[in-house]
Recover the amino acids of this structure.
């Protein structure tokens, strides 16, 4: 299903503008993530698409060309996975998954066939008769997904579907969820504040900030070519290189770096993985702290730029705190972006 | 358990308190099955007095059951949707409304009865109909139903559960009956038993509202104390216990169950 959003805004009763006028286009079968810090309006946007909130007057929501703006949630045929899963405690796993099918008043045989299909797809065979209270977090998440998917919704909406799980489980279930969504072949939107989650699951990511979509694009595009400083910081933790830009040179406390292009009036950013420790490097820095992360060391460096920089070091012998080291950053890995108007 | 003197003292005090409550009760019950109270148990045990109570007051027993069940129906029909509406829209207005519903708890039953009499006393048909007593009982028991249901509803994330059902295509009515009512059931059960127990046992307000043809169980009890011989009055106490104690036990069990859910 193709989803078209026009002029979607939301002002809460107190006058808080949760969402500024937003346009968005989502293609058939596409998985899009709404990514942003809490309070950026991503959940509000999702709830408006679901029909759980009404947008300010002037909004238009089209599902495959059909105007659904005035339809209540129960008529929109969307599947919703809630952060808390919202499974019905008074029903078994099967009862939960069958509920949407019963609401569609399908014949019994059809309900059974669809139930079996989705239960197999979500690997819930062992749990069908269990009460919800007896399930683990991961199992609940699968039941919530199966329940939302069983009635064959036009659109699947997921609100922070992984945030109720503990960290160890989250990564594993993230990949499972990505796989299931691909198997479903359904158009899906999911909200998250975790950039890794967004990048692992989504075809396209819409980064949101202060009630606006700051940038939308493939995970690679957002990572490599962020439009704004906010996107650069939020996707891939770009660090600011605070100094003086003159022409295509960046003058920092610890030395001078060439930029890929003249960028006066811009801000320079670099990612931790792009800072290399090199004996002949142009920047001089002092090692403050070294953290061993398994695959690499994370080194905190001062004196190179105004703020502490973090570098990833993959070698065997990490420097020690207190050492003076030299750094190199390739010009093409420095991002030059328009200065942020709003502090993000 | 009896190791320390403090523990022993506690036990003695507890047993003494129990005895203080139980001995008169037992004595009264015993008097109800004694052939002649003044001659004591040695005069023999009999069910004659219980039989007499039945003959004289069967109408009161049935009236009480009838009013209690009607009161239950009314509090279910009014109280459950009211509790749902209050739980679903928390805010200052809801709090004020909740306090307002609870007002009959703070106002003495006599005052409530007086207000009803002032308002409807001149309407003879209603004044002498059993539904007049029922209105008093509903006013008095409704807060118990509302609060019991509300406390269970407050413990579950009702809004999200309903949103979940709505996203699956359930209409507001379906959501109420498929999701709200089943999940509120422990609170409804606890509330229902409280309402029935209170309605059967209510004296204060009922005494003001009753007519000679509208005597409920406790009003009949007062009547028997005032006008019958002691053995009959005691037998009445026995009948009253037989009816109210199982209800009380069931109410305790249901309340404990509902409480477990709210924790």
């Amino acid at each position: 299903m193709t989803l078209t959003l026009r002029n979607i805004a939301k002002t809460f009763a107190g006058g808080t503008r949760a969402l500024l006028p937003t346009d968005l286009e989502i293609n058939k079968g596409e998985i899009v993530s709404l990514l942003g810090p809490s309070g950026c309006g991503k959940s509000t946007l999702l709830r408006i698409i679901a029909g759980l909130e009404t947008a300010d007057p002037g909004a238009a929501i089209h599902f495959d060309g059909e105007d659904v703006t005035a339809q209540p949630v129960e008529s929109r045929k969307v599947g919703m996975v809630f952060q808390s899963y919202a499974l019905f405690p008074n029903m078994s796993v099967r009862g939960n998954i069958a509920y949407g099918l019963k609401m569609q008043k399908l014949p019994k045989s059809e309900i059974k066939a669809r139930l079996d299909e989705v239960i197999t797809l979500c690997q819930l065979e062992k749990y069908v008769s269990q009460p919800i209270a007896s399930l683990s977090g991961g199992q609940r998440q699968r039941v919530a997904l199966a329940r939302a998917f069983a009635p064959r919704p036009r659109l699947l909406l997921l609100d922070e579907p992984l945030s109720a799980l503990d960290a160890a489980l989250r990564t594993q279930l993230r990949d499972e969820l990505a796989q299931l969504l691909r198997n479903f072949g359904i158009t899906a939107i999911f909200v998250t504040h975790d950039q890794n989650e967004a990048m692992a699951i989504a075809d396209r990511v819409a980064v949101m900030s202060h009630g606006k979509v700051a940038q939308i694009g493939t995970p690679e595009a957002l990572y490599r070519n962020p439009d704004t400083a906010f996107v650069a910081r939020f996707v891939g933790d770009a660090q600011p290189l605070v100094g003086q830009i003159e022409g295509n040179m960046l003058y920092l406390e610890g030395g001078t770096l060439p930029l890929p292009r003249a960028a006066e009036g811009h801000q320079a950013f670099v990612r931790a993985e792009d800072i290399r420790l090199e004996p002949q490097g142009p920047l001089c820095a002092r090692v403050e702290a070294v953290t061993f992360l398994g695959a690499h060391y994370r080194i905190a460096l001062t004196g190179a730029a105004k703020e502490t920089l973090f570098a990833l070091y993959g070698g065997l012998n990490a420097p020690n705190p207190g050492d003076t080291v030299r750094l190199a950053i390739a010009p093409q890995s420095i991002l030059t972006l328009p200065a942020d108007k709003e502090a993000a | 358990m009896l190791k320390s003197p403090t523990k022993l003292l506690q036990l003695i005090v507890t047993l003494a308190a129990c005895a203080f409550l139980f001995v008169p009760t037992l004595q009264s019950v015993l008097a109800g099955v004694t052939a002649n109270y003044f001659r004591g148990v040695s005069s023999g045990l009999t069910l004659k007095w219980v039989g007499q109570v039945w003959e004289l007051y069967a109408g009161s027993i049935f009236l009480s059951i009838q009013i209690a069940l009607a009161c239950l129906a009314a509090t279910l029909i009014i109280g459950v949707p009211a509790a749902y509406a209050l739980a679903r829209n928390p805010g200052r207005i809801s709090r004020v409304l909740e306090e307002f519903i609870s007002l009959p708890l703070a106002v003495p039953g006599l005052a409530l009865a007086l207000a009803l009499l002032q308002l409807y006393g001149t309407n003879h048909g209603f004044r002498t109909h059993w539904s007049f007593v029922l209105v008093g009982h509903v006013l008095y028991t409704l807060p118990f139903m509302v609060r019991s249901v509300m406390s269970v509803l407050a413990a579950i994330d009702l809004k999200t559960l309903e949103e979940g059902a709505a996203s699956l295509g359930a209409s507001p009515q379906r959501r109420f009956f498929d999701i709200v009512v089943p999940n509120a059931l422990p609170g409804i059960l606890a509330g229902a038993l409280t309402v029935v127990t209170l309605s059967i046992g209510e004296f204060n307000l009922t005494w003001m509202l009753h007519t000679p043809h509208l005597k409920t169980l406790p009003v009949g009890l007062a009547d028997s104390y005032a006008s019958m011989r002691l053995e009959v009055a005691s037998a009445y106490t026995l009948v009253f216990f037989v009816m109210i104690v199982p209800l009380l036990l069931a109410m305790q069990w249901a309340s404990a169950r509902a409480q477990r859910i709210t924790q």
Notes: Residues 167-184 of chain A form the longest helix (18 residues). Chain A touches chain B through 24 residues (CB under 8 Å). The mean pLDDT of chain A is 91. The CA atoms of residues 162 and 246 of chain A lie 45 Å apart.
